């Protein structure tokens, strides 16, 4: 099947990762380094008689997101092996979170860890990251990614865990550290089981909430066209189930007594998973308000989905960030930043 053009032509993005870059010890700047590697590879391809377009060796700085490089949509496949490959949209969560030195962060739905690792980097050398992942298999991938991206080594086993080899099992905590001053804990556990008012969770200041979603903003999703009525009905039911789950996760995140900021995101273009989830969570909590997520980001004009016949959008909708493939040349994404307005809860619910 052919991809719709907006998705087929999305560039590849590579995030400059200062945690690994300094470790590599390369004199050149990341842009020049990658550019040279791509050009060398291109020359080798030519010498070997392979047909490669010259543009696939081009790389430039992203005009929107800092510390991001842009490559051709058909850039060489070895790039896909780089753990720093991260879509432009996915870089926005950590940027929106307002992280500073020493912040205590919790990533509620962390694997495979793109946003977790970016947030760790933005802590700038001091702070704490608790990364939750429910699925043990994905938890392993998360740990592997953090090791690669952040140069972390496992430094201690969780209390009660026996044996020399690290294992990722449900409920176990694996601590990884290595970046001076930033402590990272990966927990293979359902975030909904965490009791927000108990230590250490009652100290968490910022939460990233990026739950499972329909993925309707992803190129892969666009390939699965809903061909018949039965498929469309099943997709509608799935969407409702996902929205109910997303509401639970977001509402849970808003119960952390010291949380000053919660960043909610999906790679969905459906209002049901985005603004509607936030609306429900806001009416359940009362402690947060929507604030401008990434002030320099410009949204595309709204599309027909929210047009005639639909409920009017909430008054704060323009503060949320939306990326759209045809307009922003990256994956479809929604992000909402919620800031505390009530000074912090004290009592257990
Ligand atoms: N934030 C990730 C990143 O940027 O790489 C992507 C997260 S992905 C959209 C959602 C993840 O949340 C999945 O790995 C899923 O297994 C996990 N998840 C779903 N429900 C969860 C729960 N209740 N607690 C913890 N993790 C959960």
Automatic annotation (TrEMBL):
Protein name: 28S rRNA (Cytosine-C(5))-methyltransferase (NOL1-related protein) (NOL1R) (NOL1/NOP2/Sun domain family member 5) (Williams-Beuren syndrome chromosomal region 20A protein)
Gene Ontology MF terms in the entry: RNA binding; RNA methyltransferase activity
Keywords for this protein: Methyltransferase, RNA-binding, S-adenosyl-L-methionine, Transferase
Record-stated family: Belongs to the class I-like SAM-binding methyltransferase superfamily. RsmB/NOP family.
Keyword Phosphoprotein included in the entry's annotation: no
Domain of life: Eukaryota
Residues of the full protein shown: 107 to 455 of 514
Native source species: Cladocopium goreaui
Active site: 267 (nucleophile)
């Amino acid at each position: 099947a052919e991809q719709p053009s907006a998705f087929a032509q999305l560039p590849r993005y590579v995030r400059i990762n200062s945690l690994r870059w300094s470790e590599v010890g390369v004199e050149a700047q990341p842009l020049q380094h990658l550019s040279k590697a791509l050009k060398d590879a291109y020359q080798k391809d030519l010498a070997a008689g392979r047909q490669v377009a010259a543009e696939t060796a081009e790389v430039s700085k992203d005009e929107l997101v800092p510390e991001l490089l842009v490559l051709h949509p058909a850039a060489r496949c070895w790039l896909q092996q780089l753990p720093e490959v991260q879509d432009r949209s996915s870089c926005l969560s950590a940027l929106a979170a307002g992280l500073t030195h020493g912040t205590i962060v919790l990533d509620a739905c962390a694997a495979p860890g793109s946003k977790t690792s970016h947030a760790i980097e933005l802590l700038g050398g001091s702070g704490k990251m608790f990364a939750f992942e429910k699925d043990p298999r994905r938890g392993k991938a998360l740990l592997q990614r953090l090791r690669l991206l952040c140069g972390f080594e496992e430094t201690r086993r969780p209390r009660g865990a026996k044996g020399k080899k690290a294992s990722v099992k449900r409920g176990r905590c694996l601590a990884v550290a290595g970046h001076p001053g930033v402590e990272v804990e990966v927990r293979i556990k359902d975030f909904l089981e965490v009791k927000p008012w108990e230590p250490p969770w009652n100290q968490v200041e910022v939460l990233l909430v990026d739950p499972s979603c329909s993925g309707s903003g992803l190129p892969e999703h666009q390939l699965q066209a809903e061909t018949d009525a039965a498929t469309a009905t099943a997709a509608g039911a799935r969407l409702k189930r996902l929205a109910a789950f997303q509401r639970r996760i977001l509402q849970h995140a808003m119960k952390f007594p010291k949380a000053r900021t919660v960043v909610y995101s999906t790679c969905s273009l459906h209002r049901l998973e985005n603004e509607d989830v936030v609306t429900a969570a806001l009416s359940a909590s009362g402690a947060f308000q929507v604030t401008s997520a990434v002030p320099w980001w410009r949204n595309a004009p709204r599309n027909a989905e929210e047009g005639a016949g639909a409920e009017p959008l909430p008054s704060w909708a323009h503060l949320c960030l939306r990326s759209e493939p045809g307009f922003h040349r990256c994956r479809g994404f929604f992000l909402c930043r919620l800031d505390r307005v009530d000074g912090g809860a004290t009592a257990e619910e």
